């Protein structure tokens, strides 16, 4: 029995309109976390903080006025939007999510609703506008990250305890509405809003407002997608409403973690997008990446394929330097992924969950009746175990370079696919042609 909701899910099931199909088929995106936090890079008063660099203001307990003094140093002389767009294009990402405003409240666009923007820095220019133009010019969609939580705004409240809180917070919600309308008006080619900073009681108590924001943006920008993290329902339930229905257009809870390919198969029922950092937990630029484990390029690639194999998108994070260039480790990751995608992107773009049982050698992805085996762990046996769903048989198997591989039926609904003779020294793809074989006689009876 379902409860009556005014601010629950606006729609049941996956969106199937062209804009959402594009969002889904894009599959691989990049995150850009860039703001004043890049300047101190995790260090304050000669002390290095190990926490996320974009949260340094919180870790070092920096008063807002002192933090915003950093605006005087914002002057990224190496910033070149066209170079950023070229790097993203060569990496093979189909979209880029940009922090328009992070929790610190500094805006990468010249907002007229606050003084804390690029317009009031030595750099002056509209960074967000330049990036939207440059990414769109090379066919890359732009998504906006927007933090509702705003440490710079006097009317922000994490909880509503008094009438004064309530009045201040209503002013804050109006301020936020104004900024969102400003973003949608100034940059109408934006394809998605990814909301963050919505975990506090003040937002959970104002589920109506989160529903209003989703409806307002969809009215202003037909087709725009909205993440589930924005949404709270009439009872403060987040992401999934009190009837268990996903709010927004895709689940955005997988941040620095992924659903388990065996235990969490329920995620294949809805759209979802994961995002990940290259170090353990640095979204904004941190001077010292030796403080945590830094994933190697193949580990980043495995997470991308893992997400797609379960019907999700993956967004890989970059935290640009204060000078507007990227650190060498990030350039290397982008280059590796790009080179791999040039050869293998057929198993990523437009692909989805195959519905086959996960095997140790890697991941399956599927596009119509083509099933891709993305091999990360080739077995010493030389044989890749493939268990097909009932009634599905494999007709051919070959690498993306066209090399045939041996397919041997070993028992009912089970095959051995042999490793290709000249196996690449990096994760590789075997493409299976499959067919429905409900009618064939069962020779294992
Ligand atoms: C996408 C990522 N989300 C932001 C975040 C949110 N949180 C967080 C963690 C625990 C409780 C509440 C909020 N930690 N990081 C990060 O700063 C980054 O923007």
Structure explained in plain terms:
By secondary structure, the protein is of the alpha/beta class. It is 25% helix and 19% strand. Strand 2 (43-44) and strand 3 form a beta hairpin. The longest helix is centred in the middle third of the chain and has 24 residues, at 163-186. It is globular. Ligand 2OX binds next to loops.
Characteristics of this structure?
single chain; 445 residues; alpha/beta; seven-stranded parallel beta sheet; globular; binds ligand 2OX
Instruction: Give the N-to-C terminal Cα separation.
Output: 44 Å
The tally of strands reads 16
What is the overall pLDDT average?
97
- Structure class: alpha/beta
What is the helical fraction, as a range of percent? Answer: 25-40%
Chemical compounds bound to the protein: the ligand C[C@@H]1N[C@@H](c2cn(-c3ccccc3)nn2)[C@H](O)[C@@H]1O
Number of helices: 10
Shape: globular
Strand order of the largest sheet: 7-6-5-4-1-9-8
Describe the largest sheet.
Answer: 7 strands, parallel
Q: Write down the Rg.
A: 24 Å
Low-confidence segments: none
Written as H for each helix and E for each strand, in order along the chain, the element string is: HEEEHHHEHEHEHHEEHEHEEEEEEE
The share of residues in extended strands comes to 15-25%
């Amino acid at each position: 029995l379902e409860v009556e909701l005014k601010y629950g899910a606006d729609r049941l099931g996956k969106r199937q309109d062209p804009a959402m199909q594009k969002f889904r088929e894009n599959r691989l995106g990049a995150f850009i976390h860039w703001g004043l936090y890049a300047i101190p890079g995790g260090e304050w008063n000669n002390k290095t903080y190990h926490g996320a660099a974009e949260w340094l203001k919180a870790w070092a307990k920096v008063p807002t006025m002192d933090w915003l003094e950093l605006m005087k140093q914002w002057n990224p002389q190496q910033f070149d939007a066209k170079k950023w767009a070229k790097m993203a294009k060569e990496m093979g990402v189909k979209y880029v999510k940009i922090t328009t405003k992070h929790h610190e409240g500094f805006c990468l666009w010249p907002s007229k609703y606050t003084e804390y923007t690029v317009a009031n820095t030595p750099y002056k220019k509209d960074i967000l506008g330049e990036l939207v133009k440059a990414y769109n010019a090379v066919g890359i969609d732009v998504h906006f990250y927007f933090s509702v939580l705003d440490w710079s705004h006097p009317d922000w409240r994490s909880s509503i305890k008094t009438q004064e809180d309530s009045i201040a917070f209503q002013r804050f919600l109006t301020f936020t509405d104004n900024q969102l309308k400003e973003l949608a008006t100034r940059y109408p080619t934006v394809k998605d809003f990814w909301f963050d900073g919505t975990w506090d009681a003040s937002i959970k108590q104002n589920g109506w407002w989160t529903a209003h924001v989703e409806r307002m943006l969809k009215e202003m920008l037909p087709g725009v997608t909205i993440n589930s993290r924005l949404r709270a329902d009439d009872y403060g339930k987040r992401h999934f409403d009190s009837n268990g229905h996903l709010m927004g257009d895709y689940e955005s809870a997988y941040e620095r973690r992924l659903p388990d390919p065996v235990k969490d198969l329920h995620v294949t029922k809805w759209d979802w997008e994961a995002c990940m950092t290259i170090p353990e937990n640095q979204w904004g630029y941190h001077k010292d990446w030796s403080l945590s484990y830094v994933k190697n390029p193949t580990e980043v690639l495995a997470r991308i394929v893992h997400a797609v194999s379960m019907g999700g998108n993956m967004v890989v994070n970059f935290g640009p330097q204060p000078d507007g260039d990227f650190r060498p480790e990030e350039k290397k990751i982008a280059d590796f992924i790009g080179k791999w995608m040039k050869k293998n992107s057929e198993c990523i773009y437009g692909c989805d969950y195959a519905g086959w049982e996960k095997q140790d050698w890697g991941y399956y992805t599927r596009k119509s009746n083509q099933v891709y085996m993305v091999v990360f762990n080739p077995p010493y046996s030389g044989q890749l175990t493939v268990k097909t769903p009932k009634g599905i048989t494999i007709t051919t198997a070959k690498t993306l370079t066209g090399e045939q591989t041996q397919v041997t039926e070993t028992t009912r609904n089970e095959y051995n696919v042999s490793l290709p003779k000249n196996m690449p020294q990096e994760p590789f793809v075997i493409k299976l042609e499959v067919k429905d074989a409900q009618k064939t006689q069962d020779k294992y009876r």
